[in-house]
Amino acid sequence: MRDADPRVVLGLHRSRHERRLLTGALDVGVTALDTSTNYLGFRSHQVLAQVAGDLLPRFALSTKVGYFQGPGRSEHSLSPVRLRAAMEQAVRDLGREPDLVFLHNPEHSLQEIGPHNRDALAQACATLDSAAAKGLCARWGVASWDPSILPSLIDPTAPRPSVLMVRAGLLVGIRTLDAADALAEAWSLTSGMVWGMSPFGGSASAPVWGRIDPRVFIRNGSGFSRVQAAFRIAYRLPQVNSVAVGTDEPTHLGELISALASDANESVIHEYRSLLRDRSPGQLG
Questions:
Q1: Are 25 and 32 spatial neighbours (Cβ–Cβ below 8 Å)?
Q2: In contact, 208 and 171? CB cutoff 8 Å
Q3: Contact of 165 with 102, CB cutoff 8 Å
Q4: Are 141 and 103 in contact (CB under 8 A)?
Q5: Can you count the helices (H) and strands (E) in the chain?
Q6: Burial group, residue 73, by CB count within 10 angstroms (0-12, 13-18, 19+)
Q7: Domain spanning 7-283 has what CATH number?
C-alpha cells in the first residue's frame, strides 16, 4: 500500500541554517520547513529571517513553542502567558506568521505537574487554538518526543490539534508507537494529519544502519540504499504522511525523495511490530 502523496519536510533541528540548503530544498521539490523557537540556541527564527527571509514565503513553515531561555539553561513551560508571548515573538522574528505552530514536548512539563496535568494540557491547547484564531498562525499542533503519558490526559472538551508530530522509524520502540497511535485516535487524527520526525534516530550514518538492512521492509528493495529504505519505512512506523528530516546537503533530500517511489511490505512491518510487542514492552520507548 502506498502513502497518499507522502511529503518530506526539511527539519532544522540539526541542520545548518544556510541559504543554499533552503534553495537546494526548493530545487528538489521540498517546500515544507520545520524549526523551533529553541533551535540554534534560540536564534533559529532570527537567522532564518536574516539569511533567507525572501525565501520563507515559498515554504509551508512550521515552528514550535514550549522551551524558553532560563538562567544558564533552557526550561520548559506550559504557561499560557509564555506560550502566547512566544508565538507573538515568532511572528516578529520570522517576519511572517507560521503556517503551523506545535506545542513542543508538553510531556516535559506534564510529568512534573502531577494531578493538575490534565488541566495544564487543556489550557495549553486552548492557548494555541486561540492564538491561531487571532491570526498568529494558520494551524496548531502537538509535537511529542515521548507521548506515552498523553493519551490518558486528553480532555475531549478541549480544542484538538490539526497535526501531531511524533518519532518515526525502525528505532522507535513499541511503547512510543502504540502511544502515538492512541494519541492520534484520541484526537481523531487521520494519518494525513500525523507527522514523523527523527527517522534515523539521530543520524543516518550511525553504526546501526550498517548492521541492519531496512530493505527487507520494502518490496523490490534492491534498487535502494539502506538509508533510503529506512526513510521509506519511517512513514509506516507509525503511519504518518509527512516526515521531518534534517540534513546539510540538498542532494540527500533528493535521494530520500526518490525512496518514496518504493512500496512498503505491509506483512513484514506487521510482523516487526508484533515482534517488538513480544519483547519486554516496558523496556522499549
A1: no
A2: yes
A3: yes
A4: yes
A5: 11, 12
A6: exposed
A7: 3.20.20.100
Rounded to whole angstroms, the Cα distance separating 35 from 16 reads: 11
Q: What is the pLDDT of residues 6-24, one digit of tens each?
A: 799 999 998 889 999 999 9
**Would you report the helix, strand and coil content of the chain in percent, each value rounded to 5?**
45, 20, 35
* pLDDT tens, position by position, 212-263: 899 999 988 778 999 999 999 999 999 999 999 999 888 999 999 999 988 8
C-alpha cell at 138: 494558520
Whether the CB-CB separation of 168 and 198 falls below 8 Å is answered with yes
Beta-carbon contacts of 246 under 8 Å, excluding residues fewer than 6 positions away, are: 10, 11, 12, 13, 14, 15
C-alpha cell at 194: 500525523
Average confidence (pLDDT) over 272-277: 92
pTM over 0.90: yes
pLDDT in tens, 171-189: 999 999 999 999 999 999 9
pLDDT band at 111 (very low <50, low <70, confident <90, very high): confident
Quick one: pLDDT band at residue 4, thresholds 50, 70, 90? very low
140 neighbors 129 (Cβ within 8 angstroms): yes
Would you say 125 and 158 are in contact if contact means Cβ atoms under 8 Å apart? yes
Amino acid at 74: S
Cell numbers linked to 40: 540554534
Distance, in Å, from the CA atom of 225 to the CA atom of 251, rounded to the nearest integer, reads 14
Every domain of the chain and the residues it spans: 7-283
